[in-house]
Design brief:
Rossmann fold; about 10% strand; alpha/beta; single chain
């Protein structure tokens, strides 16, 4: 009797990952191994088990009963507790990998975005290779990897000469550089002066606290702006599409380039479901169409460009 397909799934706690897991469990006999990091006091296994109570599994639970759904979920899922960007090895056998883990914010800090979308892919394919595994990898990307360009773009490797290793290395040290820049006497004086004007009457401790909060906020804003500006400087609209394009290049070089099987999937906007698990299902609102967001910013009456998702 043939053994069930063993699927390694990343990004299972996200919107797309939840939908993929539900389909694998409810329509196939696949055994699913997930890579999940612990979060606070929650273990990776607990985070996976909590998904069973989410609406994505309701139709399946209603169809087979809670007891049967819980049994199948427990028997056909395993957890590799690890941060994707630092995973070292993966126990086989693995037949298929669906790599859907991603930072999906268009305005994410550059170090966080690159750690997940570029470094995560590098670590995953390196771990698979070190473990001696040869699964068919399905790398989930986005149709916006084409960047700022006119005309039709073929369903082929994105044509660019940006070196992903250099960009990843620069992103990894960007926060340390921003930290150092925030501690210069000139910058610290600006934080202190602003804090004094607003909180001076409350005393020196209040001023010191506000000054340090302002310094940290400055670092955060700088990391976001660095991602946005670096992406635009090399032909992408934002750090998300930029990092996803480089993530594709990682997959091409580090996996397909080593003789392994690779499929790259480039969905457009992933919105609420049409049929499964039920019409209209969606799990949170984290991203929006870049064109819609650009239009919204242009129409925003605020005097400054904000990152708030406003809908009217």
């Amino acid at each position: 009797m043939p053994q069930p397909t063993r699927v390694l799934l990343t990004g299972v706690t996200g919107f797309l990952g939840q939908a993929v897991l539900e389909r694998l469990l409810s329509t196939t006999d696949a055994h699913v191994i997930t890579i999940i990091r612990p979060k606070g006091s929650q273990t990776a296994r607990k985070r996976l088990d909590r998904l069973m109570r989410k609406p994505v599994f309701k139709s399946w639970r209603d169809a087979v009963g809670d007891a049967e759904a819980s049994r199948v979920f427990a028997e056909r899922t395993d957890v590799l507790e690890a941060d994707l960007s630092t995973v070292e090895s993966i126990e086989g056998p693995i037949d298929v990998v669906i790599h859907s883990a991603s930072t999906v914010s268009f305005d994410a800090p550059i170090d966080e975005c690159f750690a997940n979308n570029v470094g995560g892919a590098q670590a995953l394919y390196g771990a698979l290779a070190r473990s001696g595994l040869d699964p068919h990898v399905v790398h989930v990307s986005t149709c916006y990897v084409g960047g700022i360009a006119k005309g039709l773009r073929p369903e082929a490797s994105v044509d660019h000469d940006v070196e992903w290793r250099d960009e990843l290395a620069a992103a990894r040290v960007a926060r340390a550089e921003a930290e150092a820049a925030s501690r210069t006497p000139e910058r610290l004086h600006s934080f202190i002066d602003a804090a004094t004007r607003e909180h001076g009457k409350r005393g020196p401790k209040s001023v010191a606290k506000a000054s340090e909060e302002a310094r940290k906020a400055w670092i955060g804003d700088r990391m976001v702006e660095l991602g946005r500006t670096r992406a635009r400087s090399v032909g992408w609209t934002d750090v998300y599409t930029f990092s996803k394009a480089l993530g594709e290049r990682v997959a091409e070089e580090e996996w397909a380039g080593q003789g392994h099987r690779l499929s790259i999937v480039r969905p457009a906007i992933i919105e609420s479901s049409l049929r499964y698990p039920y019409p209209g299902w969606i799990d949170g609102f984290k991203v929006a169409d870049p064109l819609i967001m650009a239009y919204a910013r242009a129409r925003c009456p605020s005097s400054r460009a904000c990152r708030t998702r406003c809908w009217t």
